[in-house]
Structures are given as structure tokens and as C-alpha cells.
Amino acid sequence: MAITATMVKELREMTGAGMMDCKKALSEANGDMDKAVEILREKGLAKAAKKAGRIAAEGLVANYISEDGKVGALVEVNSETDFVAKNEEFKTFAAQVAKQAAMTKTTTIEDFKNEAWLLDSSKTVEDVLTEKISVIGENLNIRRFVKFETETGVIVSYIHGGGRIGVLVELASQNTSDKVKEAAKDIAMQIAAANPQYITKDEIPADFIEKEREILKQQALNEGKPANIVEKMIEGRLAKNLKELCLVDQQFIKDPDITVAKYLEGVSKEVGTNVTIKAFARYETGEGLEKKEENFAEEVAKQMNL
């Protein structure tokens, strides 16, 4: 399979590895991107990449929390340029979409776009989006949304970097005091900064763990480690990698001497009831989307002689 400059660029952005290493890995993997990532990791040339991918598209993440704090929503609305993302009309529209998401009964983006607009039931969400595209003069898209509802717990949202990252957190707790809300905000900030993929290790698919184990094993062997200590080594490395993926096992950003689990234990004792993380969502603007960068692709092509 022919290896293109775009493929090299994509792999480089996903792994942080050098251009030549990316080209060699793609050639060895016959163009299979996932396999190329594995090859780079086995050779110790790539970060233990979360496959969230490239952050490229513009826009912002907006949130909405109901007055009683029992319903919360997070949405990502994309634009073509950062200039438009900072436009007040665009920001207002994104906030309205977030409120719409908090009221919706749908679960898919297609159904969401087809439902009646909250502020004018004679129009659909898609109709209003089309109007905004016409007024702003740039292609826009409502990419995704998530909604949490609780009867007894606490829902909190946190927006970082003016809408670059947004987090929605639901804590299960019989106590909904300011202390619990503060804890939820702390957890939301933790998620924004550390980007966990799961709440606990129990949520991680067994096949993912086994694949990680195999990659780490090959990595250790490629480093020339003796076979008799490789097994013990990879279990240690695996445990470390999995801790970084699991929210409750991460070092708490406000006190690195304890884990998030220990922090919540302390909060639970203080308020007299168990406080646990029920759900979370983290959106990063443009996550996994690619912005046109023809000039960069041409530059890679020249360096790779593609």
C-alpha cells in the first residue's frame, strides 16, 4: 500500500514520533494506522497514546445546568475558524444549544437536530443552525451532546480555556450540600486536566488490557530486558498505565499525595454519607477532527520524498 504524506502526518500527530519513524511504521504495517501505532509503541518511539487523536477543528464546548442542579448538559458546536468561535453571536447560539440539550428527550444527534427549537417551535434545531450559517457566513455544526439527570445526587459542569474543554460530572450522594458541590467541581477540574477514560478499572474492557499487556511485553523485549524479569516488569508498567486511565486511581491534582478515591473518602466522612462518581463526560473542541493543513502535508511530502 502506498504511504501518503497525510498518513505520515496523521500518525505523527497521534503518537508524537518522528516523521521517518512514522513512515517506516506505516510501511511495516502496510498502511494500517492502528498497527503502526502499536509498532511505534513497541519500539518505545510513541507515547502511550490515548486515541482521542488530533485536536484541530475550531468551535467551543458549552454547558447548561438547571436551576435546581438536577439536570446538566454539555455540547460541542464547531466552526471553521477560531475568529468565529469567539464571536458573541456564535457563543450565544452554543449556549442556547446547550439549554436545548438539557431539555431534550432524544439520545442521537440526528434526532436532536430534527426536534423543535426551544425558542421557536415552528423551526427545528437544524433550521436554526442553517440560519446561523447564513448569518455568520461560515460552516457550523452541532457535533455532539450529553445529558445527565439525577434525583438525589449532584451535577456540576466545568468549562476550561473559554470553551476549549468542557466537563460534566454526576456525583451520587444523599447529601447535596455546598461541600459535595465543591467536591464535584474539584472532580470536574481533575477530569479536564488529567483526561481519564474510565471511572474505575472494572470498566476497562478485558481485550484492551490484554492488548496493552502484549504491547508492553514487546516493548520490554525490544529494550533487551531478560525474559525472566519481563513478566514482572510489564505488570508493573501495566498497572501504572491503567491507573492513569482510571479517574479514581489518579493522583488528585489539588493534593498529589492522595488519589481521587481517597479524596472522596474524606469528603464522604465529612458530610456523613457516601459520595461516589456516577458518571462523567469530557469534550475537547475538535477532538478527533482534522483541520485542513495542505501546506504542512506538502512539507512532510518533501521531507519524506513521497
TrEMBL record:
One of its GO terms (cellular component) is cytoplasm. Residues 72-287 form the Translation elongation factor EFTs/EF1B dimerisation domain. GO terms for molecular function: translation elongation factor activity. It is found in: Cytoplasm. Residues 81-84 are annotated as: Involved in Mg(2+) ion dislocation from EF-Tu. The keyword Protein biosynthesis applies. Keywords: Cytoplasm, Elongation factor, Protein biosynthesis. It comes from the Bacteria. CDD domains: UBA_EF-Ts. Belongs to the EF-Ts family. Associates with the EF-Tu.GDP complex and induces the exchange of GDP to GTP. It remains bound to the aminoacyl-tRNA.EF-Tu.GTP complex up to the GTP hydrolysis stage on the ribosome. This is Elongation factor Ts.
